[in-house]
Specification:
Blueprint lengths: L11 H25 L6 H11 L5 E3 H7 L4 H13 L3 E5 L7 E5 L1 H21 L6 H21 L4
Antiparallel strand pairs: 1-3, 2-3
């Protein structure tokens, strides 16, 4: 016989914090995406450009890029195809692994990154950083780190 455990419902304070977190997350993602639209980029595009621009030789294995951006390999493949059409990235075969592919930042992709990054950082400042005091920013990071660590540990688990 299965033991039934009582549901630990959220307190009013927990419910308020949870719903505020969800609202801020959605509104901030919406605003940052909106601020990238004039450049013809999505947040997914920008995240891929950032990962590639910060990687050695401006390239990453597709599987590593999928993991870094929390996308399925299939979804990333479609995303990279779209970005290839915009000449932001290209695929290259891996010499040491015939099945492996690299996503490589093109010169146009690097120039796009250099042009867009200052605008994106300004958007992050305007809609997030500048609304927090240095103390609350420290406290926010301190509060979110255990959650991030926990969720990172859950990746790949059933």
């Amino acid at each position: 016989m299965e033991t039934e455990t009582a549901t630990r419902w959220l307190t009013d304070a927990e419910q308020c914090a949870w719903r505020t977190h969800l609202e801020v997350n959605k509104l901030l993602a919406y605003q940052l995406e909106k601020d990238l639209q004039p450049f013809g980029l999505t947040m997914n595009d920008y995240e891929i450009l950032v990962n590639l621009s910060e990687s050695e030789e401006l390239r990453m294995r597709m599987s590593d890029l999928a993991s870094a951006t929390l996308q399925s390999k299939s979804r990333l493949s479609h995303q990279i195809t779209r970005m290839e059409n915009a000449q932001l990235v290209r695929r290259e075969h891996c010499e040491s692994d015939r099945r492996g592919l690299f996503a490589v930042l093109t010169e146009h992709g690097l120039e796009t990154m250099r042009r867009v990054a200052p605008h994106h950082v300004s958007s992050v400042r305007k809609h997030f950083m500048d609304l927090l005091t240095p103390e609350s920013l420290t406290e926010l990071e301190k509060s979110l780190k255990p959650i991030a660590d926990h969720l990172r540990g859950q990746r790949g688990r059933p």
